[in-house]
Write a structure and sequence with these properties.
The protein is of the alpha/beta class. 42% of the residues lie in helices and 15% in strands. It has one domain (4-98): 3-Layer(aba) Sandwich (Oxidized Rhodanese, domain 1). It has five helices and five strands; from the N terminus they run βαβαβαβαβα.
Length: 106
């Protein structure tokens, strides 16, 4: 499984209901713009919370602003044994520009 996924691929997975979207931005960023149904765990909280709040069997797509934090979290989660984790290429910024223009770009 690739480490990154495109906005189009994520849209197809969401439409099929077969993905967990994990947003690792800070709460103020999440409040500004979010993908409907996503779960917010800020990047700094991932080590303490992932075992209680994420299902290792789920296909998880990690989202941040532009894709840097999400790639770091994706790599870390894979090192912890979660195999079906991917980072959204371009982050919420690209999602807003390509998929959901209702979302503010910040």
């Amino acid at each position: 499984m690739d480490y990154e996924i495109t906005t189009e691929q994520l849209k197809l997975l969401r439409d099929a209901g077969s993905v967990t979207v994990l947003d690792v931005r800070e709460p103020w960023e999440f409040a500004t713009a979010q993908i409907d149904g996503s779960k917010n765990i800020p990047m700094g909280d991932i080590p303490a919370r992932f075992t209680q709040e994420l299902d290792p069997e789920d296909h998880i797509v990690v989202v941040c602003h532009h894709g840097v934090r999400s790639m770091n979290v994706t790599a870390w989660l894979r090192q912890q044994g979660l195999e079906k984790v991917q980072s959204l290429r371009g982050g919420i910024d690209r999602w807003a520009r390509e998929i959901d223009p209702r979302l503010p770009v910040y």
